[in-house]
Amino acid sequence: MRHLGSQALHELFARLRHDRVGNHPVPSSGTGHDVSTETKPYEYGDPLRLDLQQTLRNATLRQAQSEEGLGGLPLSLTLDDFEVELTEHLTTSSTVLAIDLSLSMPMEDNFLSAKKVAIALQSLIASRYPRDYLGIVGFSATAREITQMDLPSVSWDFAYGTNLQHALELSRTLLRNESGTKQVIVITDGEPTAHIEDSGEVYFNYPAVPETIERTMREVLRCTNEHIVINTFVLNSTGALRSFVERMTRMNRGRAFYTTPDSLGDYVLIDFVANHSGQTNKRLRPGS
What we know:
- The protein is an alpha/beta fold.
- It is built from seven helices and twelve strands.
- It has helices at 2-12, 52-64, 104-107, 111-128, 164-175, 210-225, 239-252; strands at 24-41, 83-91, 93-100, 133-139, 143-146, 181-188, 194-196, 202-204, 228-235, 255-259, 268-271, 283-284.
- The strands form three sheets. An eight-stranded mixed sheet has the order 5-4-3-6-9-10-11-12, with helices on both faces.
- The longest helix is centred in the middle third of the chain and has 18 residues, at 111-128.
């Protein structure tokens, strides 16, 4: 499970944007802890981490090329001589784990597998990235917040309905005042079959009706507009669930991980972020 969690974290945090200093390295230079071998001319606002050797070299060259043609000592430093070290940019991320607790999960023998994935991800995020925000949401007919301490003892709900709409709405609320790259990690085995109506009542129907799907997609759009990425772990996907997840992933530009309870150590990643390079999707296995 730690191996699965480690592989999944690598994929889930592969595309982070710059924000406050944290523990996630991103492939660009910025404010961080690890000094790179590169330097740059100092600009106003840069951390004043002077590269002394390059700064003195700049001063020597400038002085030698001046109109007086004077070189040697003493050196006279100017602001244009300053050269600063570049460091690896480290950033923060804010994550909500949304785990399906509906009755279909134990009926299809998926609950234990989903709980293992959630605990592995929660444990690794909390231990490796202590500066990150991590929230947990459980959902069945409705959604509710779960504390990290309660996750190991949480069980399924004796209730019908997979209300992903409410789960995403609650996740948005939890992430609203957080910083960094924001994401919701959904772990589920079924397409949405429940939603909250305008009256506040819960509507459930199996198979899913178009209104439930559309209300859920509206919540996906709200997440997308608030720059929240939705990444989904799918257990035992049916045709209807796969169709919905790929539609959601394509709109949100998130990722989908397809696996089964018997092969949790392996998964297929559907990556619609690859659209930037002209591909419609990219199918990867762990480590590829």
